[in-house]
Each structure stands twice: as structure tokens, then as C-alpha cells.
Design brief:
The protein has 181 residues and is of the alpha/beta class. It contains six helices and six strands. A six-stranded mixed β-sheet has the order 1-6-5-2-4-3, sandwiched between helices. β3 and β4 form a beta hairpin. α4 crosses α5 and α5 crosses α6. It is globular. The structure holds adenosine-5'-diphosphate (ADP).
Amino acid sequence: MTNHFGSVVERIVIKKGDITKENVDAIVNAANSHLRHGGGVALAIVKAGGIEIQKESDEIIKKIGMVPTGHAVITNAYRLPCKFVIHTVGPIYGEGNEDEKLHKAIYNSLYLAHLYNLKSIAFPAVSSGIFGFPKDRCAKVLIDTAIEFLESFQTSIEKVVFCLFDDETYGYFEEYYKNLL
Ligand code: ADP
């Protein structure tokens, strides 16, 4: 494969599916600042993985307070097939500087996975559900950030999966990714 990014693009996988079933080292949760996993992918993760994920999240909030937008924290995954859940807080569309904040949320999730020496990580379309970020722009920010991260330094991360739940979102990610090949 000859492209500008070389093998970095080939370490990215775009797929349709339910992220709670992903057999990777860590899945990423599109969390809110209170880590109250009450809807969207967050609720699906707690339902599949167990209430322990919510309890561990509550302990984090007790210790450090709210998780600011763009930051990420990690919990165990309990009954999920992955080993860890990385909870990141993406921007709410309309609050301003959304692209930069979403970039930061994805970058910090990847960095946390790197600190834990993880090899594979799966992301949902962070911020593009309840938080209202446009799905096509979400695809660009998430994929660009993964490429930037994988190119920027030697990391334990071998594979970055984008696991999209619906056809429309999958279509945007697939289209943007194909144009990089
Ligand atoms: P946010 O509040 O950051 O927008 P949401 O959970 O509302 O987060 O949505 C983020 C994305 O996750 C949306 O594209 C939504 O369709 C998707 N999603 C919901 N459930 C799942 C799941 N089980 N696996 C993967 N993606 C999911």
C-alpha cells in the first residue's frame, strides 16, 4: 500500500457494530462530566459490563471531582470482553471550540491507553449522539486524531477500531477513511 501515511492508516479499522462486544484491550465510552452513564453508549456499556463500572466511576468523581471536557479516565471492564473502559468527555455541540475539544478527548483516550501499555482500542462516534456533534465532522476529527497520534510517537497501540452503531455514521467514517487510502 503506497500512501502518505504508510502503515499508520492500516492500523485503523472501521466497522459497524455494538462496541460492548468488541474484543479489544479497551473500549472508549462517550461519557459526560459526571460519569453518570444514563443513556446512549454509556448505558449500553454499564448494562453489558455491570453496575461495577458505574460504581468505579462514582469513586473517581468522589476523588477528583467532575471530569473536564476533553479529559479521559479509566475503569475496569468487569463482564465486558475488553480489559478496560476509557471514559472520555467529548464536547456538547454549541458550547464552542467543539472540534478542538473533540480532538483533545480522542487524543487523551489514546494517550491513556498508551500509558497502560494497551495494544488495541475501540471508539464509538464520541459526541455525535446525545451531544449533537455533526456525524461527518466527527468522522474526520476522530480519524485524523488517530493518525496524528499513531504517527507522532512510538506507542504500544497497534490497532485503533472505530465501531459505529448505525449505517449513517458508519457511512461517514468509511467514506473519510477510504479517501486516505
Ligand atoms: P454523546 O453523548 O457523546 O453524543 P452517545 O452515547 O449519545 O454519546 O452517542 C455516541 C455514539 O455512540 C452515537 O453514534 C450512538 O449511536 C453510538 N452508540 C450507541 N450505542 C452504541 C453501542 N452499543 N456501540 C457503539 N456505538 C453506540
